[in-house]
Amino acid sequence: MSRARQIAALAASEPGGALVWLDGGDGRGFVALEPDIEIVADDLEGLAAVEALWRAEPEFPWFGWLTYEVGTAALLGRPPVAATLPGLVLRRYRAALELGERERIVGDPRAGAALMARLERGSWPSGQSWPLGPVEAQVAADDYRARVRQAQAFIAAGETYQINLTQPFVAEWLPEWAGRPLAARAAAVYAALQAATPASMGALLAVETGRPCGRWVISNSPETLLAIELGAGEDGGDLARSWPIKGTRPRGSDPERDRAAQEALKQSTKDLAEHVMIVDLVRSDLGRLARPGSVRAPARPELVTLPTVHHLVSEVRCTLRPDWSLAEVIAAVFPGGSVTGAPKRRTVEHIERLEQRVRGIYCGAIVALTPDGLRCSIPIRTGVADAAGLWLQSGGGIVIDSDPEAERRECWAKMRAFERE
């Protein structure tokens, strides 16, 4: 049995603890089960306690999340808006299995052996069906188009240059799955996503500790907010990198149409301008904690092809100042510019007016702190599963020449991974 099937079986078994299964980018991921410390906070100040423990005992990994509202509260200097999930949850694990070309235990070897024993006992049945019904928008098409036009009015008034506007979706559980444990349903969704539409920063996380867990985060995200590699920068400094995504086309239905979609995206003046705007924002964010002159970004983005869409992606990098702290570096880049727009501070205020709902973990950050550094995803293509179904959001960047209906269709294109014929 493959390792992925063993992990899915463990997740489906109502394992207790607080299971986390990450695809951490560069072919590297993690699975962990039993946390020994949990830090929960309503703001980014909780990061100081996490960092103190991580730096004191860096061999033990930490996993968890930050909600979008925690980031916007810090940005705007106000208390966070109430959301359905705690704003900051980070859990330390005695051991995690690092996944990739060479598996290894990170942390305590005895705790790692216990985790491996749990994994080896798992049995994931072949031929699992898809648990979810059709994805349904929770905002009417006319309403979403009107919100796009309102965003463009803000842009025309000089309030902002680009607004990332999202909308909610839901997929309910199919009747034949409704009686099964929620853990089994969530594991089936994530295992199917990972097999059919793998994403470099995908994740399955238990929201609550213990058994049963009443909510699960399911992420099919391809986007990295921030990666820090200790000692990998200039002159042995710490290297920080971000990969903002901006610019999307749905995959074509045949090879010829798919090539045409790629070319259209690469040659799109609108998408390139939108992309450069966000890259400049990320460069500025990283520059706040960078060694002078170390910030780098490419002249043009790369085209990245995923199972359902094409994207424009750029790598922005720098070497951090020696005295950086976890709270400072997260505050500098969070929330990610690709999911806010520019300028960031004013734009997030307009997002609140337009969307009229909290984003929660969607567009926040899923965090991994390991002995060699930090990795944060931006959880786009991400939802929270509960007894009713999977609650999702999707969006895109609105600029002055956006077509409202095209923007609405782009939201649906990004939901395709959660649809089945």
Automatic annotation (TrEMBL):
Name the source organism: Nannocystis bainbridge
Instruction: List each copy of the Chorismate-utilising enzyme C-terminal domain by range.
Output: 142-414
In this entry, which stretches build a coiled coil? none
List the Pfam families. Answer: Chorismate_bind
What protein name is recorded for this chain?
Answer: Anthranilate synthase component I family protein
Q: Where does the secretion signal sit in this chain?
A: none
